Amino acid sequence: MPMHWRHRKHRKEILFLLALAIAVAVVALGAAHSVSWAALIAFAAIGLLCLWLIGRLQ
Q: What φ, ψ does residue 36 adopt, rounded to 5°?
C-alpha cells in the first residue's frame, strides 16, 4: 500500500467513501422492500471488507 495513503487527510477521505458506500447499500436494500439471504450475505461481506480496510489504514 502506498505510503501517502497513511496520511490523515487521505484516511478521512477513504473512510468517508466507505461510509457513503455503506449508506448507498442500505438505501438500495431498503428500496427493494424484500431483503433476500443473498443480499444480506453480500452486505455482510462488504461490511467485513470495509472493517478490514479500516484496520489496514490505521
A: -85, 165
26 grid coordinates: 442500505
Nearest to 24 by CA among 43, 48, 10: 43
pLDDT digits (tens, 9 = 90+) for 7-21: 666 777 877 888 888
Confirm if 21 and 46 have CB atoms less than 8 A apart.
yes
- The structural domains of the chain, with segments of one domain joined by +, span 3-57
Q: How far apart, in Å, are the Cα atoms of 5 and each of 13, 50, 56?
A: 10, 15, 10
**What is the rounded distance in angstroms from the CA atom of residue 28 to the CA atom of residue 12?**
24
For the whole model, what pTM was predicted? Answer: 0.42
